[in-house]
Amino acid sequence: MSENKEAKKLYIQLYSIHGLIRGHNLELGRDADTGGQTKYVLELANTLSKDPRVEKIELVTRLIKDKTISGDYSRSFEKVNDKLDIVRIRCGGGKYIRKELLWNHLEEFVDKSIKHIKSLGRLPDIIHSHYADAGYVCSELTKFFGIPFIHTGHSLGRDKLRKLLNDGVPIEDIEKRYKITHRIEVEENVLYFADLIITSTRQEIKQQYGGYKNTNEELFKVIPPGVDLEKFYPFNNNQLIQEEAIKSKGIIAEKMIKFFVKVNKPLVLTLCRPDKRKNISGLITAYGEDKELQEKANLAIFAGIREDIQTMPDNEREVLTEILLLMDKYNLYGKMAIPKRHDTQHEVPELYRIAAETGGVFVNAALTEPFGLTLIEAAASGVPVVATDDGGPRDIIANCKNGLLVDVSDSKNIACSLNKILDDEQLWNEYSQNGIDNVKKYYTWDAHVKAYLDEIVHLVGKEKTKSDTFAQVGRKLLDTEKLIVSDIDHTLLGDDAALAEFVSLVNNLQRGVGFAVATGRTVQSAFDVLNENNVPIPDVVISSVGSEIYYNYKGELIYSNGWDAHISHLWKREKIYELLKQFDFLHYQEPDTQRKFKISYYTEENKNNLKKIKEVLIKNKLKVNIIFSHGQFLDILPYRASKGKAIRYLSYRWNIPHENILVAGDSGNDKEMLKGELLGVVVANYSSELDSLRGGKRIYFSKRTYAGGILDGLKYYEFLKDFKGDEN
Fold it and tell me: Partner of 530 for a Cys bridge, out of 205, 258, 385, 535, CB 3.0 to 4.6 A?
């Protein structure tokens, strides 16, 4: 695996996991997860792909296979242009679900991202996450590989929590719906592991990130997003008018005719998702309570895409219902338009130009606005704006000088500002031209990408300095083509001479071959006994009968959160423990042998007793894995856990084929890992529990005992033939 540090051109991965992303015709406003972030990430990716310093861009998102949405999102790979690909990774099943429900599935996304990276044979030069969910994934990737890591938050958990509490939402409801505590913890970790945080405004750094413990001003760089000037060009520039724009203008005109009695009045326009924070109701109230404003202008609200309001999520349904009720309350029929859908790629740019051509105004009345991308789109199109006096709009209006900031908490302020611009032709023209001119100075994607790549150049090639990253582990496992896995007791240990020979072999393994142990011992016990016997600490330790996985980082064993998340599904430790108290033939083992995902007992070998245990657990709908070994040990594990399953997880995560993994064991708790497509070695001193494996596919019963059996198995399978010239 080549890291290609000397490459002149950059390979960048952008991670944006939730929502619907494709390379054409974004469904902006379809739901709360498909909005400004989706557009930002795709436009960033597109512009980066045009820069000569960039070799390859991958936009990594979630693969969705759901009958309710387009099949475009079920394609695992989409080529957008010669240098830009969209890579979709499946996690949490195929159904399209909101981002708050993805938290429990992100370890799956991490695993499959690692598999994808290894399949390419090259590490990206930079990984860049968007929002907290992708931040979690990239934090894990940077810990494993030491890849420089950039993050853009788009919105933050602490800020959201504060606003929801101010709105009177009970903390219990916030936790239930938004998993807000977990999100904030993830964001703290992102701040710790990230090499650079990109924000759109300085206010974002001070007011939003300021509440986080791991905030460090040196970590941040303000790089405002841009606007696509080829799409969002001025309304009065006839040279740039495109055939598609003329077609879109006609479609929009047809829509407007259906709503408006007087079509030629100035158009007050807003474009946003149907979200309470967007304060659409405040704009309608401002318009509805001002009769003079109604006489001089029409109101058009493009609030996402909808089919049947009743089937939409609660937030969107409530907002859209309120819009329709306010329309009826103020009798705005013939004056107000609220179309059900629009083509975001072609119609949206034309909407701004139509508003400008009519002498209208664009409004962003959001209660809070981290940036305000629609404001720079409006500016580029030449339509003046009225915007919330919060966050990003303050910077945009200060730079572009194309409109007014207002306190939107009072709807009268919105109406007053609209009237001021609509009534003053000179002011309207000044704001219009200022927007057109100043967007080119401050808000283009080309300017953004130049600043972005300048920052990246300083990061590429830098080693991670955080003490709890273990990049050498990940990079070694990326290079691993073959893996030797052995049980410890009665397999690896038991014959000192054979062990010394095996240790010598391990110490001289060539690059591409890894060493792991899979044991019933706890991790500390395994660590201690290996040290006592002068066995080098393995690259991977599978401990507690496969219920835990650890990676070796400079002699320290690092717990695998990925395996933890994977096996936790349907595991109910306390309930199992209480149910099994009824059996007097079970004797609970010592506390130091009990683990989060393992309940251990002493018992005698008795098939009827095992049957009773299974019946009780099945009756109570508990899915578990029951392992009996050495004639006396009974372990209850999650149904996804065992030594064999742990090895297959490593195979999947690190893309090591089953036929390239040799496993050696001696007892019943090794049985599962010895079966199947792995190369099994049963040492001669095995227990009778393994007799049933004789004659099985890819299972070799050695005539040598203990570590000698492992050495014999390596020769039998010619396992190191391509890595060690003197194997035979």
Answer: 535
